[in-house]
Design goal:
mainly alpha
């Protein structure tokens, strides 16, 4: 299913080669989110026969809204957005235990024998860890793309928050969901210290931008009024 063919082109402000890298950094965790959502949607935690093919069809509206949000946040061109289709993340394919292990960064380790990875209890844990990791990486990639596109936090945070809301619904369909506010807090502790520490080689404008997005996303996702949270820049 091609999700990006009908999307309008972005304004191309980011050089094409860099825009492609930024786009791929977003599409990769989205692929993990779709795979994990597919497994969770079965309600069985049994992997044999699980395929992504049936998952996107009833969720086309949400997926298209998500992809349009990505396009706007990154100001991506139609060519960059088409990479998502070329990568095949939303096309029909099986979801083996090895893929879930990859999406969860091997945190669980590989049991002996490895076939135990298909046990329902382990599949459930792989999905839980993978969801946290992929959503957090998605947020990092979105903020980075917005900064590269020159979008101020007040402009970009609302769009990023909406993409996160859709992604959270996809990764945990029909269940008590991880919230975008929880993802933002995980992202802050997982990614920002390396960027904002005094010894970081990130440029000052980048540090200022990440701080501003952290504060603005907190305000938007916690439902606080304007000016309730301000970055110290």
């Amino acid at each position: 299913m091609a999700l990006t063919r009908s999307l309008a082109c972005g304004d191309g402000r980011v050089p094409s080669a860099r825009a492609e890298r930024l786009g791929r950094a977003i599409f990769a965790p989205l692929g993990g989110i779709v795979e994990i959502g597919t497994v969770r949607s079965t309600g069985t935690w049994l992997l044999p026969g699980v395929s992504v093919g049936a998952f996107p069809e009833p969720r086309q509206e949400d997926l298209c809204r998500l992809m349009e949000g990505v396009r706007v946040v990154g100001r991506f061109s139609g060519e960059v957005m088409a990479i998502a289709d070329a990568l095949g993340y939303f096309a029909d394919h099986d979801v083996p235990a090895a893929s879930l292990l990859l999406r969860s960064e091997g945190i669980t380790g590989v049991p002996e024998p490895p076939q135990r990875l298909e046990e329902p209890a382990l599949v459930r844990r792989l999905c839980r860890i993978g969801a946290d990791l992929q959503l957090t990486r998605l947020l990092q990639a979105l903020v980075t793309a917005a900064l590269a596109a020159g979008a101020e936090s007040g402009e970009g945070a609302v769009g990023i928050a909406e993409v996160l809301r859709v992604a959270c619904g996809l990764v945990e369909p029909g269940r008590a969901r991880i919230t975008p506010a929880e993802v933002q807090r995980m992202w802050r502790v997982a990614h920002l210290p390396a960027i904002l520490r005094p010894a970081s080689d990130a440029p000052d404008w980048g540090k200022t931008g990440y701080r501003a997005y952290d504060a603005e996303l907190e305000r938007v996702l916690q439902g606080e009024g304007p000016g309730a949270v301000r970055a110290c820049v």
